[in-house]
Structures are given as structure tokens and as C-alpha cells.
Q: What sequence folds into this?
């Protein structure tokens, strides 16, 4: 999805919008700039606008001299019509928390709140930029620079200010991380541009999330449990822990993605592995980080109550693997909840909150699949149900053959 959404009236500022779109596409690339002409024939116009606005990083509202007073054939002001597309685009952006930047062209001025319908009155308080005909290139360059520095939108070319390249990259990473936590569906949608780099970026994120999750998990237990000896031996032990975890988790993630791609393929023919994979990489990576963070805190709480619980659990695991016997659960008989009960209780409650927040985040992020495929709720539920059924079958059938 495009990061820059251009909102305009065709009978008000088509020429200026075209010039601006050309400048933006030359700097950021065609796939990062959206205009209504991008909507394909037969597509639901309102739904396409909704998906594009909610996925955008910024909405540029091009305001010309007739933008406020433009009327329909009956003489009614278009902004007063709840079905007016310009009004709808601004309403959607304000409701979704997307940044709205008025772009004044051809000598237009900002409308006051009293001149606007109540649903978009907040538009009058948005900081505007002006593109003057006499200094168009200069003003357009300043707007582009603002989009790169303030909103961290990636460019196909070097930033106008070469000295800010490193700062811009760090800012972009920070904005992406914040968006992934707060608005995962929007961030994931923005990473669906159709480029080969999207899949690579998602894979790198998944690998980084897996490694960071294992480091967090290791910090919650004890390095001595995975490696003993000198500092070098411990370092090798930690590296082996991370690489083993990475390989196992990537295999599991690949299985989950393959089955989910099949499920969506059965529900909607347009859904394929290349589109499902990047989305799932972000969802699974974020879920793994939340799971490991909660597990590390919960493990710390358990060790406050019984410091030897993990050692007994690992010893039982090694004995079970050596004897090819079923894995026994670590004994809870020696638990004494009296010592440090308060601290342990707080930590367990914190772990539960992290897991709950992770579950809510996963539900929200999971909506990126429906959003990306423009699917209905029924299709999304059907695909998810088929996916769960496939996973249950993969786990259940081998157990029946043993």
C-alpha cells in the first residue's frame, strides 16, 4: 500500500495535483503515492479509499481556490454531502489517526472550522504547506524533505539533504517500530508494495525477532543452564542456543506460512505465498517477542520462589530424552510461595499482562491479511478456520500413526 495519499477535487486542482504527484513519484516511486486513478475497474471505490487512507502514513489534501465552495449540479456545497469523497477521505484519516497535511495551491487559504462540517472541523487546525506557482520547485522540494524527515518515508533517491541520511534512516526505523507496536495493520500494509525487497525486509525482521526473543528468554533464566565453563565456552553455548532456536523457529514459521497460504488460496484465488509470507513474518515475529518477554518475566518469578525448579526440569528432560520416555512435568511439590511472594506475584501479573497485550496485538495484526486481500469478514474467518484445521491435522495424524 502507498504511504502518501493524495486527496483533491478534480474540478479544483487537477493540474496542480498532477504536478505534485509527478514530483512525489519521481522522488519516492509510483508505488508509494496513491491517487484515485490507482483504483482498478470494478473495485469497490469506497472500500479501496478506506483501505488506502487507513494504510497511509500521511494524507496530503490539495486545497485550491474552489475546494471549499465547490458545488454539485443542484447547487449544494459538496463538503456538506456526507457521501462526498474528499470529505470521506479526511474523515477516515482523522478517525484513523493518520497525519493530514493541507497543501495550498493557486493562492488558496486555509478554511476555518466554522466553514467546515463538524466531522472534519479538526482539518482547519492541521499545519498547512503552500506550493506557490512562482517558486513551485523550491516549495515542492521542501514538502518532499518534510515527508522524508518528519514521516520517515523512504525514497528511491538520496535525500535532498545528504547530511541527514543517517538520521533519516534511524528515524525511519524508529517510526516503523512504533507503528508496528501501535498500529501493526497499517505498518504491515505499507510493506506490501509488491517489491522483492518487501519479502527480504520481512524475513530479516522475523530472524531478528527470533534471535532477540531467545536472548530475552535466556536473560530470564541463566546462561549456566545452556553453557558452562570459560567465557569462550559460554559464548559458544549461547551462540549454539541462538542458532538452534533460529533454525527451529524458522522451520515452524515456514510450516505456518505454507499452511496459511494454502488456506487463503482455497478461499481466495488471488492470495498466494508471496503475499501471505511477509504479513505472517511480521505477525509471527511480533507474537514471538511478546511470548518470550512474558516467559522471561514468569520464569524470573518462578525462580524467586524456587531457584532449583528450572534445574530439576532440565534434568528431567535430559533423563527423559536418554530413556526415550515421555517428558515429565517439573515437580511443583517443593514450591514454597512464602518467600518473596509479593515480588513474584507482581512479576507473574506483569507476565500475564504482556501475554494478554500480545494476544490483542496478534488479533489486530492478523487483520492485515483481510486488509491486504480486500476480503470479507466471512472469507477471513473461513481462511483462519481452514488454517487451524490444517495445523491440527498435521499434529494429530502423526500421533495416530505412532
A:
Amino acid at each position: 500500500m502507498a504511504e502518501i495519499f493524495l486527496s483533491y477535487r478534480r474540478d479544483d486542482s487537477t493540474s496542480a495535483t498532477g504536478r505534485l504527484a509527478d514530483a512525489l513519484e519521481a522522488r519516492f516511486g509510483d508505488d508509494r503515492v496513491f491517487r484515485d486513478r490507482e483504483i482498478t475497474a470494478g473495485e469497490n471505490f469506497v472500500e479501496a479509499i478506506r483501505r488506502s487512507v487507513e494504510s497511509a502514513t500521511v494524507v496530503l489534501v490539495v486545497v485550491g481556490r474552489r475546494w471549499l465552495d465547490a458545488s454539485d449540479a443542484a447547487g449544494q456545497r459538496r463538503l456538506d454531502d456526507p457521501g462526498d469523497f474528499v470529505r470521506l477521505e479526511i474523515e477516515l484519516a482523522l478517525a484513523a489517526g493518520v497525519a493530514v497535511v493541507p497543501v495550498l495551491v493557486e493562492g488558496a487559504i486555509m478554511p476555518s472550522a466554522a466553514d467546515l462540517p463538524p466531522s472534519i472541523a479538526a482539518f482547519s487546525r492541521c499545519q498547512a504547506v503552500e506550493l506557490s506557482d512562482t517558486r513551485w520547485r523550491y516549495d515542492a522540494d521542501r514538502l518532499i524533505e518534510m515527508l522524508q524527515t518528519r514521516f520517515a518515508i523512504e525514497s528511491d533517491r538520496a535525500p535532498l539533504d545528504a547530511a541527514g541520511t543517517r538520521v533519516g534512516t534511524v528515524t525511519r526505523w524508529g517510526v516503523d517500530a512504533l507503528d508496528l507496536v501501535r498500529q501493526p495493520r497499517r505498518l504491515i500494509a505499507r510493506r506490501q508494495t509488491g517489491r522483492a525487497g518487501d519479502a527480504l525486509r520481512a524475513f530479516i525482521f522475523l530472524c531478528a525477532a527470533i534471535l532477540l526473543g531467545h536472548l530475552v528468554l535466556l536473560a530470564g533464566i541463566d546462561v549456566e543452564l545452556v553453557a558452562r565453563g570459560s567465557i569462550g565456552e559460554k559464548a559458544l553455548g549461547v551462540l549454539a542456543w541462538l542458532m538452534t532456536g533460529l533454525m527451529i523457529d524458522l522451520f515452524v514459521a515456514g510450516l505456518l506460512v505454507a499452511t496459511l497460504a494454502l488456506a487463503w488460496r482455497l478461499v481466495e484465488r488471488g492470495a498466494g505465498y508471496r503475499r501471505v509470507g511477509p504479513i505472517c513474518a511480521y505477525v509471527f515475529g511480533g507474537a514471538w517477542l511478546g511470548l518470550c518477554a512474558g516467559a522471561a518475566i514468569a520464569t524470573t518469578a518462578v525462580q524467586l520462589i524456587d531457584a532449583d525448579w528450572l534445574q530439576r526440569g532440565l534434568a528431567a528432560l535430559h533423563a527423559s530424552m536418554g530413556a526415550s520416555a515421555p517428558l515429565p512435568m517439573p515437580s511443583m511439590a517443593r514450591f514454597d510461595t512464602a518467600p518473596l511472594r509479593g515480588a513474584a506475584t507482581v512479576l507473574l501479573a506483569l507476565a500475564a499482562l504482556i501475554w494478554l497485550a500480545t494476544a490483542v496485538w496478534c488479533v489486530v495484526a492478523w487483520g492485515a491479511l483481510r486488509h491486504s486481500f480486500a476480503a470479507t469478514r466471512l472469507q477471513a474467518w473461513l481462511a483462519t478456520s481452514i488454517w487451524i484445521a490444517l495445523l491440527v491435522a498435521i499434529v494429530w495424524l502423526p500421533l495416530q500413526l505412532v
Q: What stands out?
A: The radius of gyration is 27 Å.
